[in-house]
Amino acid sequence: MITESVVRKALEGVMDPELHKNLIELGMIRKVRIRKDQVDITLALTTMGCPLKEQIVGDVKQTVSALEGVRGVDVELTEMTDEEKSAAGLTALPDNLYEATMAAKESELVRSTLGDHVFERFITNKLMEWADYQAYVSDFEIKRYL
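Request: output the structure for the sequence above.
Response:
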């Protein structure tokens, strides 16, 4: 007999090809609904623009279809919330050059890779670039066009 726990256990074997963790561990399987021999799954992607979503959906369908008693699998896609991404250990990229520069400024990896002299110049130049950008692009333009 098909149960939600059997489906979820099987999906532990389906890996996100970019993150190299299984979909259950990442919290990407939101809902499993079973109607006789039909399994409906709600799958939350990290982003709806995921270039590998067809592969992930195919892997889910193949895995669940292989379970005894399953005749059909339907996968509904949605997107993970920021809270879900955070719980899965996924962090967002910086929103702008300033945030990226501040993250780089705190990074020992960037400092040790560039060396102190180049690192300091790099950070200074990026902050100047951000200041130039802000001088020429208004908040209105950012909100309207970006």
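The chain has a mean pLDDT of 92.
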